[in-house]
Amino acid sequence: MPLALLALAIGAFGIGTTEFVIMGVLPEVAGEFGVSIPTAGWLVTGYALGVVAGAPLLTVLGTRVSRKKMLMSLMGLFIVGNALSAVAPAFAVMLLGRVVASLAHGAFFGVGSVVAADLVAPAKKASAISLMFTGLTVANVVGVPAGTMIGQSAGWRVTFAVVAALGVVGLLGVARLVPEAGRPEGVTVRAEFAAFRNAQVWLAMAMTVLGFGGVFAAVTYIAPMMTEVAGYSAGSVTWLLVLLGLGMVAGNLVGGRYADRALMPMLFTSLGALALVLLLFTFTAHDKVLAAVTLALIGALGFATVPPLQKWVLDQASAAPTLASAANIGAFNLGNALAAWLGGLVITAGLGYTAPNWVGALLAGSALLLSFLAASLDRRRTGAAAAAPVPVG
Fold this sequence. Notes:
It is a single chain. Helix content is 82%, strand content 0%. By secondary structure, the protein is an all-alpha fold. It folds into 2 domains: 1-187, Growth Hormone, Chain: A, CATH 1.20.1250.20; 196-381, MFS general substrate transporter like domains (Growth Hormone, Chain: A). Helix 7 packs antiparallel against helix 17, helix 13 runs parallel beside helix 15 and helix 17 (321-348) packs antiparallel against helix 18 (355-387). It starts with a helix and ends in a 6-residue tail after the last helix. 58% of the residues are buried. The chain crosses the membrane at residues 42-62, 74-97, 103-121, 128-150, 156-178, 199-223, 229-250, 262-283, 289-309, 330-352, 358-377.
């Protein structure tokens, strides 16, 4: 595999780390700025909304420059945002830093997927894209727990300074290793948006918002839930995040494998099981062992939905794979924002730190219902196409 893929994976690792590490240091950030945990949850919501806005906007703007220059610009935004978070004198500045960093997220994965595929032979395109996304997956196993540990021992500001440094490494890697190319040929804004005339694309993204939102309803407030409800020490949160990350890695691999064989059955199974496990987490969160097991299952089932959802979106928007890919990353993060906000509401209402779990169950259950609708519409379309008379030449 080309070394350029390593540069893309490092960038993905840094982006994945900064997105999720805030959950492990949320109590420390809230304490330093003197805000409540639900208010600090806006650091998750703000990041997610930034991805939602930045993914399609910057991807479309990226059609005007070479993909290498676009990737370098995106990593520059990422560095600035994390550096600003590290030195933020007030909560509002911290939130601004999170939003700036988030603007690079969706577009980096959308453009990076195309670059990764172009670096290898046609038969290895999927493997190349998978290798880049491995950086995001590994971030949940290594980067997030390590960042949480650093944040709890040396301070959360050091965590974000280290993440900014990772961005510098990723930027230098892209500059040195990714080959230069001209502007993509035949790519226009109109062509990119044409695929969104298909109602199935919007339905698929709604499934993404609700399905992955179910995961984030629970994990956004995982630190206070595990310390205040399950009885774990603050230091144990790091290892619980490792467990969550391992579940994500396993679920992503299983989801990808079986989505290629039977996409919709895999989606039905993962979303249905996710809704059930999230509902059970309301009760298992009160026991250390059961809480740990359930957390791993949430990670596995949550990321088992990612490959089938991503493939479904790309299948429905084959005319604009780059924008569709970036927009779906935005949809994942819109779900994150929605879930973090709803989770904060039920906590503020006095329903306790386990209340976000049943919110997540409702979101995942709603995504399951939409998946049934999407499958039904697809069967009708396929049936209508098969029944259509064949023109006689």
